[in-house]
Write a structure and sequence with these properties.
Blueprint (H helix, E strand, L loop, with lengths): L21 H10 L7 H22 L15 H32 L14 H30 L7 H19 L4 H35 L1
Length: about 220
């Protein structure tokens, strides 16, 4: 058997462990493969799985049954207009989040002066967190819709309305479940983010393939 030259840097292996493949044993010992999830992490995993499934079914299934007649003409201006009209849904979700914060502050003497002058009650902190997350998600979604409408094949434009509807559904579930902690908001977050992430990942892959083709010419 081959001996390691620098045995001091490696963990000791008992006689029972000598029968195991040395590489596998050392990998598990050094990287601590026995990862244990907390109850909250398990709750997040349980709730994001349905979000991922619904995203795949929506983008790959529901969008395919959308009639081609509902799509705009295959022209650049019409494509952009199609994306912008569906981008209204994420923008409306953002508007609702802003209104919820503003209305609560107006009705709360402790919060009416704004975050720059007050520490904020627990309720307004939750509303602000929802608003911040919605803003981040809306920016990504609108950008994804516009790029998707510009570069993807015409028939693939059917994915945009599905993604926009999942966005609104996800925002509603995210807001309703936020105070239940990470597991409570996981489904809503997934329905909001996964369609956008999937579209952006597809666009990035398409860009890489096109760059590869340019290089091999």
């Amino acid at each position: 058997m081959r001996r390691w030259k620098n045995s001091r840097s490696l963990p000791r292996i008992s006689n029972d462990e000598r029968s195991l493949p040395r590489a596998i044993f050392l990998c598990c010992d050094l990287t601590r493969c026995d990862v244990k999830l907390t109850d909250k992490q398990k709750g997040v995993v349980r709730n994001v799985i349905p979000a991922a499934v619904l995203t795949v079914v929506g983008l790959c299934g529901v969008s395919l049954v959308t009639p081609m007649g509902a799509l705009p003409t295959d022209e650049p201006a019409a494509r952009i207009a199609w994306a912008l009209q569906w981008a209204l849904l994420p923008i409306l979700a953002l508007m609702v989040s802003i209104m919820r914060v503003a209305n609560y502050r107006f009705a709360s003497p402790e919060d009416i002066d704004g975050s720059g002058l007050t520490a904020g009650t627990d309720r307004v902190l939750v509303l602000r967190a929802i608003l911040q997350n919605t803003l981040e998600q809306a920016v990504l979604a609108v950008a994804a819709y516009l790029i998707w409408a510009t570069v993807m094949p015409h028939s693939w434009l059917r994915a945009i309305p599905v993604a926009a509807l999942l966005f609104v559904t996800g925002r509603i579930l995210f807001a309703r479940g936020y105070q239940r902690g990470a597991p409570g908001r996981a489904l809503g977050f997934g329905l909001t983010a996964y369609p956008t992430f999937g579209m952006l990942a597809t666009l990035a892959l398409l860009l890489i393939l096109r760059m590869f083709r340019w290089l091999v010419r």
